[in-house]
Amino acid sequence: MRSPEGIELAALCLDCGYKLANHPADLTRDQILFLTGALSYRAEQARAMAPTAEGVTRIVVTEDEEEKVG
Q1: Residue 54 has what DSSP assignment?
Q2: Residue 53 domain-assigned?
Q3: Does residue 38 belong to any structural domain of this protein?
Q4: What is the rounded CA–CA span in Å between residue 4 and residue 31?
Q5: Would you state the pLDDT for residue 11?
Q6: What's residue 65's pLDDT?
């Protein structure tokens, strides 16, 4: 959901009402996880971009999962 293609698909589903199945019961577990992850990521971004109190600087540090060394 964080790839350019995933962001585009998430935007189509969340913003434009694009459906991955005819009924919610027809969604696969991967589709459900994708949509809930996309919604969570969208909410996280919205909270990070929310206005802060005047004079407060917000620094957001993230770590890409691909860069993690296991």
Answers
A1: T
A2: yes
A3: yes
A4: 17
A5: 86
A6: 63
At position 20, the amino acid (one-letter code) is L
Whole-angstrom Cα Rg for the chain: 15
pLDDT of residue 70: 47
Cα 63 from Cα 65, distance rounded (Å): 6
The CA-CA-CA angle for residues 53, 54, 58, to 5°, reads 65
pLDDT along the chain (70 residues), means of 10: 80 86 89 89 80 71 63
Q: Can you read off the two tokens belonging to residue 34?
A: 């994708």
- The model carries a pTM of 0.63
- Round to whole Å and give the CA distance between 19 and 68: 33
Q: How many domains does the chain have?
A: 1
* Domain annotation covers residue 21: yes
Which domain, by its residues, includes 20?
A: 4-65
Residue 70: inside a domain:
no
